[in-house]
Amino acid sequence: MSATLSQRLEGVRARMASAARRAGRSPDEITLVGATKGHPAARVAEAVAAGLGHVGENYVQEARAKLPELRARLEAGGLALPCLHFLGRLQRNKAREVAREFAVVESVDRVELGAELEQRAGQLGRELVVLLQVNAEAEAAKGGAAPAALRELLAQSLAWKHLRVAGLMAIPAPQPTPEASRAGFARLRELALSLRGEPGGSALRELSMGMSADFEIAIEEGATSVRIGTAIFGPRRREEGDPA
């Protein structure tokens, strides 16, 4: 008999805790973000009811369609909306919508986008937590700043009054085995440490890295947040979305 969503969620939490203990860390240091790309609002609401407190969306268009239903389902069940993370590539013309709907934006990769989010968050009277996305392998299909561009991005972030830079995020290139991802995760950790002395760098305490295939390795290498989709929700119903 296949596991229920609640059972898969608990299984992921148990694996996270084991990985943390192997690394001499407290499981409480690591946030589980459910990556819900391609999964319907009913499934997301089921996960929230089972205890998932952070939900990540990749596409503005999908979130636009999904979030009203999610809110309605949660309200009907007497449940609060989880902390919403925006995970995907973001165009500046959609920054206002993201600033309105999300609490955390994990994909800030250029000064212009940060400035736009700052303006929109200020207009809405909100503060957003943001992570700076790194593209260490310079993969054209992925967002993210080159490591060499992070110092300038950090320096410019000091002018943002409505954005709180909290750390780095990365989506490493796919590897044949989870263990093969270890070096990439270690590089992100070392990059964050190397920037601590730069203007704005003292804020880089969070590391969002690791997904269903390799999150245990990411935790062993210092992840403070992991983005898990398939291991909780099963295969996505579709791959495409709005390239926000």
Gyration radius (Cα, Å) is 17 Å
Q: Please, what is the CATH homologous superfamily?
A: Alanine racemase
**If helices are DSSP runs of H or I spanning 4 or more residues, what is the number of helices?**
9
Helix/strand-derived category reads alpha/beta
Q: What is the string of helix and strand elements?
A: HEHEHEHEHEHEHEHEH
Number of separate strands: 8
Give the strand order, joined by hyphens, for the main sheet: 7-6-5-4-3-2-1-8
Mean pLDDT: 93
CATH names the topology as TIM Barrel
Polypeptide structure, described:
Helix content is 39%, strand content 16%. The protein has a single domain, classed as TIM Barrel (Alpha-Beta Barrel), CATH 3.20.20. The protein has nine helices and eight strands. With 244 residues, it is α/β, with parallel strands linked by helices. Helix 4 packs across helix 5. Strands 7-6-5-4-3-2-1-8 form an eight-stranded parallel sheet.
Observed structural traits:
244 residues, alpha/beta, TIM Barrel, 8-stranded parallel beta sheet, 16% strand, globular
Summarize the topology.
Blueprint: H1 5-22, E1 31-35, H2 41-49, E2 54-57, H3 60-76, E3 83-86, H4 95-101, E4 104-108, H5 111-124, E5 128-134, H6 150-157, E6 163-170, H7 182-194, E7 206-208, H8 215-220, E8 225-228, H9 230-233
Quick recap of the structure?
With 244 residues, the protein is of the alpha/beta class.
